[in-house]
Amino acid sequence: MGRKVAIYDTTLRDGTQSEGVSFSTEDKLDITRRLDQFGMDYIEGGWPGSNPKDQAFFEAASRMRFEHARLVAFGSTRKASAKASEDANLRALVESKAPCVAVFGKSWDHHVKNALKVALEDNLEMIADSVAYLKDHGLEVVYDAEHFFDGYKANPEYALATLKAAADAGADWLVLCDTNGGSLPGEVGEAFNVVRERFSIPLGAHVHNDGDLAVANSLAAVEHGATMVQGTVNGLGERCGNANLCSIIPTLTLKMGRELSIRDLSHLTSLSTFVSETANVAADPRLPYVGRSAFAHKGGVHVSAVMKDATTYEHIRPEVVGNERRVLVSELAGTASILAKMREFGIDPDKGSGRLVLDRLKEMESEGYQFEGAEASFELLVRRLQDGIRPPFRLEGFRIFVDVAGSNVSSEASIKVIDSTGAMEHTAADGNGPVNALDRAVRKALERFYPELRQVRLADYKVRVIDSKDATGAKVRVLIRSTDGERSWTTVGVSTNVIEASLAALLDSMEYKLMLVRNGGP
Q1: Residues 302, 164 share a domain
Q2: Which burial class, exposed, middle or buried, applies to 189 when counting CB atoms under 10 A from its CB (0-12, 13-18, 19+)?
Q3: Residue 346: φ, ψ to 5°
Q4: The domain containing residue 355 runs over which residues?
Q5: Burial class (CB in 10 A: 0-12, 13-18, 19+), 307
Q6: Does the residue 457 lie in any domain?
């Protein structure tokens, strides 16, 4: 096993600088608990004293019992105009009651001259005075050398002098920061080699992703001596984000042989999902390791090989990081993909049924259907072809009325459905749009025959124009996500009429729920 690496999470501080991300105090406390349970070594909670929310967080967090992690308060070196003992920012760090503090200082002479507008020597005194003050209060001090790599390229001796100022004052960690995110792995490795030769203090890396190299640069730092990696869950962060810990952590353990405090990687995907949900940010399905598409197979050749030996197209087993393998179906699929998907549905395929389903799939996709994101509709298609199932109801007809009165627009849908015994239900419903009115009318009609449909509600609705060059005559694809509170599913409809496409997806959604009930599901 290689040298141990400490994982330092800054989701609650740097991650909140992502566009569109804002955590409440309770959100931050919830995430802190999950990060601690997962096994993070350090959790940077925010900048105490900078805003009431972070102040409230540190007050609450000081009463928490941590299983493993050390809470970190973040701030800057003192101002040039005051001593460290007089600096309100440093005093807030001490008063946060966090056992560890991270304080950043300028390493790039360009920033010292043009941002701070102080003499180079004065900046060194600011760094040393700040670190010494925090150490005098018995705190573990992580010194973040902001813009270190840019500073090292511009004036290497001065950049190293800033590290010496922090080290001589008693810093416990020297963290080299690629704040602008534009460095290359070779540059990172070279700088770490030099710093490692000059300092015996443990080194860390804090990398941004503006060149799409944050993970690579972080791993390069570890290869060249870093024993702390800072980053965020899902790579949240300002501009293009920070180094993504959800990629770094499994790579360090599974591929680089580094020892981490995190023992059970199977919780990684659920942690990623939890943070996305709490941040109210749609999870990126293409994230390595934890994304929904990370182990999704679409090409027929790929699926055929994976079914025989998963290592042919998977670099790790998905369950190691708490993810799962998915087989996608499309016109690119071969019969192996179809048969694998049928078995996933619990269907024992007949000989030749895979080819039958594949031929029908290709035919429907040529008409504009797409089943990758609508597995409920695909399962219905398979069962109709394989098992000969028929919908327990049929649509006899519908009408949509739209009334415009000044700026007010209202919709009403009228619909007729017939159940399997031949009984008809004719109902109408209002809605805030034609699709909403149609949805309510369908449910109202079918609930008389099938009361279990009262549990179903619409969770998401998406419309995609398939061929925009046909303008208003183009076909549209409608995807509807439904839920009954226990599980959710997606269905699809296609037509040149958005109402007709929506109705097809709605009816599939209802039929799918009834199929679940019939098969003993919720």
Answers
A1: no
A2: middle
A3: 85, 20
A4: 296-366
A5: middle
A6: no
Q: Domain boundary at 348, 366, 384, which?
A: 366
From the CB of residue 312, how many other CB atoms can be counted at a distance below 10 Å?
12
Same domain, 274 and 308: no
- How far is it, in rounded angstroms, from Cα 180 to Cα 207? 8
Last residue of a domain, one of 251, 279, 307: 279
Minimum mean pLDDT among 213-222, 285-294, 371-380, 428-437: which range? 371-380
Residue whose token pair is 């042989």: 257
In a domain, 439, yes or no: no
**C-beta of residue 263 within 8 angstroms of C-beta of residue 2:** no
Q: What is the pTM of this model?
A: 0.74
Paired sense of beta strands 42-46 and 326-327, if any: unpaired
The full 3-state SS of 91-138, as one line of letters, equals: HHHHHCCCCEEEEEEECCHHHHHHHHCCCHHHHHHHHHHHHHHHHHCC
Of the candidates 267, 271, 230, 237, which has an alpha carbon nearest to the alpha carbon of residue 42? Answer: 230
Q: Is 450 within 8 Å of 392 (Cβ atoms)?
A: yes
The residues, any chain, with a CB within 8 Å of residue 104's CB and separated by 6 or more, are: 74, 75, 76, 77, 143, 144, 145, 146, 177
Q: Are 215 and 321 contained in the same domain?
A: no
Q: Are 253 and 122 in a shared domain?
A: yes
Give 193-235 pLDDT, tens digit per residue.
999 999 999 999 999 999 999 999 999 999 999 999 999 999 9
For residue 123, tell me if it sits in a domain. Answer: yes
Is the same domain home to 55 and 190? Answer: yes
Q: Give pLDDT tens digits for 134-180.
A: 999 999 999 999 999 999 999 999 999 999 999 999 999 999 999 99
The pair of three-digit structure tokens given for residue 248, joined into one six-digit string? 């770094």
Residues in a beta bridge with 145: 105, 176
**DSSP letters spanning 226-281:** --EEEEBGGG--STT-B-BHHHHHHHHHHTS-EE-S---GGGHHHHHHHHHHHHT-
Alpha carbon distance 265, 273 (integer Å): 14
Distance CA 28, CA 274 (A): 12
Q: Which amino acid, one-letter code, is at 3?
A: R
Looking at the 3D structure of the chain, how many domains does it have?
2
How far, in Å, CA of 313 to CA of 315, rounded?
7
Q: pLDDT tier at 121 (50, 70, 90 boundaries)? A: very high
pLDDT-derived band at 356 (thresholds 50, 70, 90) equals confident
Q: Tell me the C-alpha distance between 257 and 191, whole Å.
A: 23
Q: Which residue has the tokens 């710093």?
A: 195
pLDDT, position 323: 93
Q: What is the pLDDT of residues 24-41, one digit of tens each?
A: 999 999 999 999 999 999
